[in-house]
Design goal:
single chain, 236 residues, mainly alpha, Helix Hairpins, 2 domains, four-stranded mixed β-sheet, 78% helix, rod-shaped, binds zinc ion
Length: 236
């Protein structure tokens, strides 16, 4: 029966189309995962740059703080030389030491900020390196993956054309049956007699049907899943 040969060839086409369609889903996912890695690296880098900027701003503020206190301290110290009463002297003197203490505290904070700055700069170098790597991976793969996607798409179209060409040689009823099985039975319309069981669902094939499958003069459907059963290539 000529139709059986055609059905087998159509199933082979649909098997390949199925594999390539899986690839068509995987490739864009691969590409977007690479793009996502770069985005994460970019975000991390700009966060670290932001941190550095804030740290430097804070250091400048603290330095200004110290400077303005030094100006005050010097002014008070000059005033101390001209002061008459003990009470005034004490008050001014305590203000001077208060400002000196404050400056010493601010200086400690400044040192902490400088240590933090050194750590941020180390982080910044790491982040830049990571970003460069992620950028390199994207550059190396983006075009390759896009070309691959186009190529697979073209291959699918070619095989589809090939299958459709086979389809024109089938009677309408058989083609409808094939199409409905492909659609509803997990892309498998034509299955093999695998040691007297259906290779689609595993259901045992009656001896009478095995004979009919081997005779190849009519379409035999699996009694369980309804798929079209054919002899395994090389079995007879
Ligand atoms: Zn079956």
């Amino acid at each position: 029966m000529r139709e059986l040969e055609i059905l087998i060839k159509m199933q082979q086409c649909d098997d390949i189309i199925g594999e390539k369609e899986i690839l068509m889903q995987e490739l864009p996912r691969e590409l977007s995962s690479i793009k996502n890695d770069l985005e994460i690296a970019n975000t991390q880098l700009s966060e670290t740059e932001q941190k550095l900027e804030e740290n430097i701003t804070m250091q400048k503020l603290k330095e200004l703080d110290i400077q303005s206190n030094i100006v005050k301290i010097n002014k008070y110290k000059e005033q101390l030389l001209t002061i008459k009463t003990n009470k005034e002297y004490k008050a001014l003197n305590s203000e001077v030491s208060h400002l000196e203490n404050k400056n010493s505290e601010t200086d400690d904070i400044l040192i902490e900020l400088m240590e933090e700055e050194a750590n941020i700069r180390i982080q910044l170098t790491e982040d830049k390196k990571k970003q460069e790597i992620a950028n390199g991976v994207l550059k190396a793969n983006e075009e390759k993956l896009n070309n691959k996607i186009k190529q697979v798409q073209k291959e699918i179209e070619q095989i589809r054309d090939e299958r459709n060409e086979f389809a024109t040689k089938l009677p309408r009823q058989i083609l409808k049956r094939y199409a409905s099985l492909i659609k509803n039975k997990n892309r498998k319309a034509v299955v093999f007699n695998e040691n007297n069981a259906c290779s689609g669902c595993g259901f045992n094939i009656r001896p009478q049907l095995v004979i009919e499958i081997n005779n190849k003069d009519r379409l035999v459907n699996c009694e369980s899943c309804g798929r079209i059963l054919v002899a395994k290539p090389g079995d007879n």
